[in-house]
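re: that chain from earlier
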Amino acid sequence: MFQSKYKLCELFGIPVYVDLSFAILLFLFATSERSFSFGLASALVLAISVVLHELGHALTAGAFGFRTRDITLSLLGGCASLIALPRKAWQEFLTALAGPLVSFALAGLVLLLDVFEVRVENDWLRSVLSYAFWMNMMLGIFNLMPGFPLDGGRIFRSVMRAFVSRAKATFIAMWVGRGVAILLGLRGLHSLFTGGSWGFISILIAWMIWREGWREYRQALAEERFGGWSQDDFNARVSPPPYDR
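^ sequence. v structure.
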C-alpha cells in the first residue's frame, strides 16, 4: 500500500521518518550545485544536520518527561512531534534552545578542524565540510528568528510568559511570527520573480508559520478556558502541532 513517509532508523528509541516530499529537496540540491555528487552530498549533510537538530529538542524534552512520537524529514526541513509540549516556561525555553545549540555545535566541530590544522587534501570533501559549517550556522540562526512556532518564537513565548498568561503569550508570539511569515513570503515572491529556484520554499515556510501559529494559539486558548481537560482531551479536540520545522 502506498505510504507518504518511510522509516529510516531509530535514535535513542525515537523513530526517524522521511516524507516523500523530501525527494523534491534532494532534486533541488542535486540540480542546483556544481556537480550531481556534491548536490547529493549537500542534501545528505542537510538531512543529518536537521535530524540532529530535532534530536536536540527531543532529548531535552525527554529529560523533562515529555516523550517524542517521531522525527520526520520533509520538504520544509524536519519536525520532532512531541506527544505533549513542555508546560513550564523554563522547560520550553531550554527545549527550544537545544536545537539551535546542536546546530552551532556541529558547525563548531567543523571549525575545529581548521583550528587544529587538520588537513583535508581532497577538494570535494573540503567543499562538503565547508558546506556543513555554513548549513549548520544558517540552520541555527534561521530557527532563532521569532517566527512562532520556530525555535525563536518558542523562546520568545517562554520569555513573555513571565509577564502574561500562556494563552496571551502565545497570541503575541503568533502575531510576531506572522510578521516574520509575511517577510519570508515577500522574499520568496521576490526570488521567484528574479529567477531564484528556492523562492517557493520560503513561501511554504511562511505559510507553515502562519497556519501552525494559529493552531497552537487555539490549543493554548482551549487549555485556558477549559482547564479541566486532560492532555489526551486536548490532543483529541485540537490536533497538537509539530514542535519544530
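Helices lie at 22-32, 36-63, 89-115, 123-143, 151-160, 166-193, 199-225, 231-237.
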